[in-house]
Amino acid sequence: MRLHLRAPYFGRVSSAWAASALVALLMLLPPLSAAPPDPSPYAGQESRDIKALAPQEVESLLAGKGMGFARAAELNGYPGPAHVLELAEALELSEEQRDRTRALFVQMEQEAVSLGSALVAAERRLDRLFADRSATPQSLSNLLNTIGELQAGLRDAHLQAHLVQAGFLTAAQTARYAQLRGYSTAPQPAQGQGRAQGHGDGHGHDRGPGNAHDGGSPRH
């Protein structure tokens, strides 16, 4: 009697395992037509005069623009002098309010231009440190400390102006300002608001031009 032997079971299992492993390996391989990686988001910025600053940022810093430095005040019910002057008619500012706001804006702008120009110059020095391959840990730390102080001073100049400006307006004018600016939340009156300021009424935060307190100018 003749016996017909089948292929061992384990042989079939080994073949199936090898086929599965090959498929898995092929799936891990990148396709031949894979797209190249996305370029760096910094691509093109290597041609800037100051790599860390866009030309528009340089222009705004040199002109003393706000650049969002005072958002903490603006969005919490402390109007800024530039926009208050733009909305003077709608806010029904008195002549005294207009005069004090103009003086405050000029003072803020002068300080912002000075600090902004210094900041641009410091950022240019930082750029050259790396472009010239001359950066050292100490020179880098020193320059970054200078840049940090200038940035803080610039932000302070804008925020202080908002703080003083709030003292020139009534609560109703501040609420109207928020409405005209498109803010959805009505601001809480700033300390000392409720009637028109700008009459030298001695509120502690009223340190605009012409007021004694610290030499007639906001501290920066």
Topology:
Elements: H1 9-28, H2 55-63, H3 71-74, H4 81-86, H5 88-91, H6 95-131, H7 137-166, H8 171-180
Helix pairs in contact: 2-6, 6-7
Name the descriptors:
disordered C terminus; about 55% helix; mainly alpha; Four Helix Bundle (Hemerythrin (Met), subunit A)
Structural class: mainly alpha
**How can the largest sheet be summarized?**
none
Instruction: Flag low-confidence runs.
Output: 197-220
Q: How much β-strand is present in the residues?
A: under 5%
Tally the beta strands. Answer: 0
Describe the model.
The protein has 220 residues and is mainly α. It has a domain at 68-180: Four Helix Bundle (Hemerythrin (Met), subunit A) (Up-down Bundle). The protein is 55% helix and 0% strand. The protein contains eight helices and no strands. The protein has helices spanning 9-28, 55-63, 71-74, 81-86, 88-91, 95-131, 137-166, 171-180. Residues 197-220 have low confidence and may be disordered.
